[in-house]
Amino acid sequence: MGLISFLGFTLLVAGYAWWKTRGTDEKSADGYYLGGRSLGALTIAGSLLLTNLSAEQIVGLNGQAFSEGILVMAWETLAAIAMVITAVYFLPKYMHKGITTIPEFIEERFDENTKAILSVLFLIAFSIVLLPTILYSGSLAFSTMFDLPTLLGMSEGAVIWLCVWTIGVIGIIYAIFGGLKAVAVSDLVNAVGLLIGGLLIPYFGLKMIGDGSVGAGLNELWTENQDKFDVTGDVTSSIPVGTIFTGMMIAQMYYWGTNQAILQRVFGAKSLKEGQKGMMLAAFVKFLIPVIVVLPGIIAWHLFEGDLSSADKAYPELVKEVLPPALVGFFAAVLFGAVLSSFNSLLNSSATLFGFDLYKKFFNRDASEHNAVKAGKLFGVVVAIIAMIIAPFIANAPAGLFDYIQQALGSLSVPILAVVLVGIVTKKVPAIGAKIVLIAGVIMYVCTIFMRPSYQATALAEADANGITDAAQLAIIKAEAFPHFLHIMGILFVVNVIIMLIVGAIKPKTDIYVPKQTEAIDTTPWKYAYIVGALIVLLVLSTYLIF
């Protein structure tokens, strides 16, 4: 029954995506990369949510919630604020220019070589960090939910390898040969399924805790696990409360305001108004997402009494425990769709970045649009294979899946956001300033990663010499020995912006940048954007007052 519902839903989504995209010209750049600039608000919202909300998010954040509680919801709720800022400030700036990629904007503002550096950084982030984590987390979920090692008579490691390559190959076929519109349309269907399926897990989990009553289950969860419902993380947590005001918002603004994989969905909008509405709708749903990506982790903590071999297994073990067998196939299909969606979205964006931004500059300046699209597709296959090779090794990440993603992305998000923001706000900062920051910014962040262990070791050795043996006290000493990686991101962002402004003051750009105006789409903003955005921000802030 489970297998039938899994195959049925998966084939339904694939068939619907084919039917909806059969009239789109996939050989043109606009058709393949931007879905012919024909996407409406609902499709954009669904695609944004599913590009973001995949197995690495669901498995990783629930794993952190299992360990630390509700404080990790900051990754989701504060994202809604970043999405509002993107919708009302960044989108009009981007879409007035009719751009296809963020590096294209950087080329227009700075120069061709700056664009190339930025494209390469995006591709590194996609192939080494994001794509492998998506494949690994999806594989971990399927392996645990269906107990595949026992079913197939293989070791857990071998099953992860098998799942990674199976998902990867299917993803390649979907993304490389379908284009953005196929990805976006299938995202919309899968987003609805994921929201329904995602809500079923806490529903059945709370019923199990409350002996058939959701209300009783919620009450018991709340009263028995008060420490898990504190949003103010202390210095030893993954999100100390102070980081919300420093690097947390930097990470969010990078992801929602400058990340090509996310913004490509909005650049495919039929108008600025539709793009803004789509992002606002996604922001509102994002505010509600902790019910799917945080609450189940706390339910798992309660049901399994905190006893699991790995925190990242909390969600798949909970699904296996609470979901009725008839629904397991449907949920597996939805999760499979979510994994494919994020994987496909990043592959499509990788193909776009290479074909649109790098191929014509470094490989074939006279390439036709058709040849550039073809080269992008081939490059996408190479990126996918690299990701499939790396993915199984993420099992060795010491601090958990989601923490690994955020720390690794910090090296790229800080300089990229600094360059894009300074590029938008100023007109005289030259290309050399952007190039210095894109290279030096990455190096500075990587240096801090290598510096942290030595500072912590020195602090712990000093504590040992002073006879301090209390585990809680030692954890505080270790945490305070070196700034949290989110604080580092906040500090380096300010440093990077200052570097660019100093370069601009010493050697200002001689030809003043004048933004162009596109005629490809209607760029009239949505008149309710500020009102709706303000309401969403108030909703987010209210959650911190409640908890």
Structure description:
This protein has helices at residues 2-21, 29-34, 41-52, 55-68, 74-95, 102-109, 112-145, 148-152, 156-209, 214-224, 247-257, 260-267, 272-288, 290-293, 295-303, 314-322, 325-363, 369-390, 401-425, 431-465, 471-480, 485-506, 529-546. With 547 residues, the chain is mainly α. The radius of gyration is 23 Å and the shape is globular.
Structure summary:
The protein has 23 helices and no strands. 76% of the residues lie in helices and 0% in strands.
What key phrases describe this protein's structure?
547 residues; mainly alpha; globular
**Global outline:** globular
Strand segment tally: 0
Order of helices and strands: HHHHHHHHHHHHHHHHHHHHHHH
Oligomerization state of this entry? single chain
Note the total helix count: 23
Strand content: under 5%
Topology:
Elements: H1 2-21, H2 29-34, H3 41-52, H4 55-68, H5 74-95, H6 102-109, H7 112-145, H8 148-152, H9 156-209, H10 214-224, H11 247-257, H12 260-267, H13 272-288, H14 290-293, H15 295-303, H16 314-322, H17 325-363, H18 369-390, H19 401-425, H20 431-465, H21 471-480, H22 485-506, H23 529-546
Helix pairs in contact: 1-9, 1-17, 3-9, 3-12, 3-13, 3-17, 4-7, 4-15, 5-11, 5-13, 5-23, 6-7, 7-9, 7-16, 7-17, 7-18, 7-19, 7-20, 9-10, 9-15, 9-16, 9-17, 9-18, 11-19, 11-22, 12-17, 13-23, 15-16, 17-18, 19-20, 19-22, 20-21, 20-22
